[in-house]
Amino acid sequence: MYAHTLLSMTVSNVRLSKAAEMDHHWVAKSWLSDIGLPQYSQAFQSQLVDGRVLNSLSRRDLERLLNITTQSHQTSLLLAIQLLQLLNFDKEVLEARRAQCEHKDQDPVVWTCHRVIKWIRDIDLKEYADSLHGRGVHGAVLALDPSFDADAMAKALGIPSHKHMLHRHMYEEMKALSIPARQTSVEQDCEVPGTGAPPQSPSAVSRYNEEIVSMRRRSGKSPLRFNSKIAIGRGLGYHGSCGSLPREARVQAVPRTKGSPMHTYKSVEITNV
Known about the structure:
Elements (H helix, E strand, L loop, with lengths): L1 H18 L4 H11 L6 H6 L4 H4 L4 H6 L6 H16 L4 H10 L12 H10 L3 H4 L9 H6 L5 H8 L6 H14 L5 H7 L13 H17 L12 H4 L14 E3 L14 E3 L4
Antiparallel strand pairs: 1-2
Helix pairs in contact: 11-12
């Protein structure tokens, strides 16, 4: 018990020490730009939101104090804060990891919104890439929210629901990116300096998880669906309006593992993109 308390105090001290180095100018200008929400820069600037304030923000604070009412933007900010907490607010670690994956499709959890847009262009969807500006889609959203799947990304990009093969392409590219970086795996990469131990779950992360569970129970929807009304299977274009095509026009899809969004579909039918 004493050792656990001592570790928690060490984690807290390290985090607050590093958070203090993130002044409100950096948060308002650099950090918000990196996560794709620069439109809130003035609000963060006027409220003097620095790293220490970020560490304590809740969804209610974002709405009441900063006038951020868009649910997906609130969730994007909370996930970005969660990443900072997992890295103990160490800017040098964050920037070093981002530099290592600037030209490699790896470590997506630390990707900025700009890096995500670059990836979208690299996978031949450049005509949709600019749709992500101001949407708050960054690496922590891709890696830390398991509900942000190919359907949610396609919706954020504005890919029409009838573009079935583009939805299929988006699904395959997100799968190829290999985003296993949920909270547990991220924590294993973010040890507390000098202790060799992962950081303890911060209160803001716990509040975020509780809020997400509560929201899903009330609405049954993901907070990052961007008001999507399309089910996963139909959004990916593997069923529905394609049933009238002749048998010879059908192409066998790659088998999906159990639990995959595509598990229940055995074939994909060719249509115009």
